[in-house]
Amino acid sequence: MSNQERSSPDGDCCSPLIREPLNADWAGDLARMFKALGDPVRLRLLSLVASHAGGEACVCDISPAFDLSQPTISHHLKVLREAGLLDCERRGTWVYYWVVPTALQQLSSVLSSADPTAAMA
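Below the sequence we write its predicted structure tokens.
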């Protein structure tokens, strides 16, 4: 099936992986994000922050969900921040985290296809 046949009626093609090869810079950015999510603790941290009321969570709210030391949790949060998946702000003595929506959109768009049945064929 050609790329044109995979295009949606409005002209947008499906996943960038199907449309054309990723350039080196974008592949590097995506790889950093996927690598950060490759650890179960970091994946759970991202999920806890994203699903927290108001879309942001204090480190004090998410730490009790893990049987890990505070420095270890801080390390994992730092990896997620450096990968561009989380952002944060210090408020008094606590740090609040939230998911960067554009980062999740990039990860989602690079893997999704316009035709969900195409993978089944």
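The two ends are 11 Å apart (CA to CA).
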